[in-house]
UniProtKB/TrEMBL annotation:
It catalyses: 4-phospho-D-erythronate + NAD(+) = (R)-3-hydroxy-2-oxo-4-phosphooxybutanoate + NADH + H(+). Belongs to the D-isomer specific 2-hydroxyacid dehydrogenase family. PdxB subfamily. Substrate binds at S45, T67, Y259. Pfam families: 2-Hacid_dh_C, DUF3410. Its EC number is 1.1.1.290. This is Erythronate-4-phosphate dehydrogenase. The gene is pdxB. Catalyzes the oxidation of erythronate-4-phosphate to 3-hydroxy-2-oxo-4-phosphonooxybutanoate. It comes from Salinicola rhizosphaerae. Residues 111-257 form the D-isomer specific 2-hydroxyacid dehydrogenase NAD-binding domain. Keywords: Cytoplasm, NAD, Oxidoreductase, Pyridoxine biosynthesis. The lineage of its organism: Bacteria, Pseudomonadati, Pseudomonadota, Gammaproteobacteria, Oceanospirillales. InterPro entries: D-isomer_2-hydroxyacid_DH, D-isomer_DH_NAD-bd, Erythronate-4-P_DHase, Erythronate-4-P_DHase_dimer, NAD(P)-bd_dom_sf, PdxB_dimer_sf. NAD(+) binds at D147, T176, D233, G258.
């Protein structure tokens, strides 16, 4: 059996060689010819799997994307061709939440505000948005949720309309999938009218998909009024993104919110398991045997620290978004935007999720343990 795998998929040989011969290729360079003679294709989000790509796919029986998003896959076409498909829901959701929390802590520090007492609007409350709300639960943060598909399916009367979030939220986080058509389409969900309606001072974060937000309208508002705080990890037209918009945002990163070792490797394992199921083979390999140990395992807090300070300290030690902002900026200046965007993603330095860090507390009071655990760290009470 032959399996074609994107070069940015970690542990591909370790997992997929159980199935057969693994060939690697950069995801943006995959063509119809690349697929000839291959039985399985394993991609990430940058390879459009469509009629043009499948034109010469003479043996293809399985397609897997090691990502949460599936907007790059023509699912009806795979159905018509009888090709089995799998994605990796939830795989890097915790990493995205870490990214959002790190960004919020940085802006809070720069602007001298506290997350406690803020109202945060979460648009799209699936794996990412839902876990973000849960992790903020132990802080005094008011979470407002907009998720019309879930509101309908679950009869949730506590969920709000997007325009209510825009009215009320100090922080607005977009975690929607890209859906081009239908009642709940998300293309330019944040359109010009909604971007204009954001209250001055709103923190706007998009770590969903670039096309969910009208980038031209955001750039124009920032040029004209400069009165928002903005965090963009996803952009229209990646990797050739709008440099003028990039210059105006407070935190700009090249679609790496989910790029922890943990999130990426879990995505590979999920697709390995799905492929083995599809081909009727036992999945013997386990991620636990292959994943490297975290280099920072433990922080000991010897005396009591106010919860927000402790969160900030531990978050910064584990993952600090500044690392990615600064490094991406160096790549872009050295290589230009388009090449720099992809090069930083390809050479992304290792990063671990908050949940890999154990925080040992010598003193617990004032909700410190709950705040740390709620934020995602694993906590142990010392003697
Ligand atoms: N920046 C990154 O690195 C990164 C990483 C992972 C995922 N993502 C993106 O984030 C998206 C969300 O991830 P997830 O794991 O939470 O997915 P998910 O499928 O678990 O949740 C998505 C949620 O959005 C809701 N939704 C759909 N249409 C909506 C609309 N019009 N308005 C409001 N809510 C709507 C759905 O009902 C669902 O609850 C993914 O589809 C992917 O595109 C980005
Ligand atoms: O949908 C996802 O899982 C993410 O957007 C994904 O992690 C982005 O990384 P890429 O697939 O572009 O390598």
């Amino acid at each position: 059996m032959r399996i074609l795998v994107d070069e940015n998929v970690p542990l591909a040989e370790e997992f997929f060689s159980e199935l057969g011969e693994v060939t690697r290729q950069p995801g943006r360079e995959m063509t119809a010819e690349s697929l000839r003679g291959h039985d399985a294709l394993v991609v990430r989000s940058i390879t459009p799997v469509n009629a043009a790509l499948l034109e010469q796919a003479d043996r293809l029986r399985f397609v897997g994307t090691c990502t949460i998003g599936t907007d790059h896959i023509d699912l009806p076409l795979l159905g018509e061709r009888g090709i089995s498909f799998a994605s990796a829901p939830g795989s890097n959701a915790d990493s995205v939440v870490d990214y959002v929390l790190s960004s919020l802590l940085l802006l809070a520090e720069e602007d001298g505000f506290s997350l406690a007492g803020k109202t945060i609007g979460i648009v799209g409350a699936g794996n990412v948005g839902g876990r973000l709300a849960a992790r903020l639960d132990n802080l005094d943060v008011d979470c407002l949720i907009c998720d019309p598909p879930r509101a309908e399916a679950e009869g949730r009367e506590d969920f709000l309309e997007l325009d209510a979030l825009i009215d009320q939220a100090d922080i607005l986080c977009l975690h929607t999938p890209l859906v081009s058509e239908g009642e709940h389409a998300t293309f330019h969900l944040l359109d010009r009218t909604r971007i204009e309606a954001l209250k001055p001072g709103t923190v706007l974060i998009n770590a969903g998909r670039g096309d969910c937000l009208d980038g031209d309208a955001l750039r124009e508002r920032l040029e004209r009024r400069g009165d928002l705080r903005t965090v963009l990890d996803v952009w229209e037209h990646e990797p050739g993104i709008d440099e003028a918009l990039y210059e105006l945002v407070d935190i700009g990163t090249p679609h790496i919110a989910g790029y922890s070792v943990d999130g990426k490797m879990l995505g590979t394992e999920m697709i390995y398991q799905a492929a083995m199921r599809h081909f009727g083979l036992p999945a013997r390999k386990k991620l636990g045997q292959l994943k490297p140990d975290p280099w920072l395992r433990k922080i000991v807090l010897h005396s009591w620290t106010p919860p927000l300070d402790a969160l900030s300290l531990c978050a910064r030690a584990c993952y600090d978004v500044r690392r990615d902002m600064l490094a991406f900026d160096r790549y872009r200046r050295r290589l230009g935007m388009t090449a720099g965007f992809d090069a930083y993603r390809r050479e992304y330095p290792p990063r671990r999720e908050f949940q890999t860090l154990r925080v040992e507390l010598k003193k617990n009071k004032g909700g410190l343990r709950d705040a740390l655990e709620g934020f995602g760290f694993s906590v142990k009470l010392g003697k």
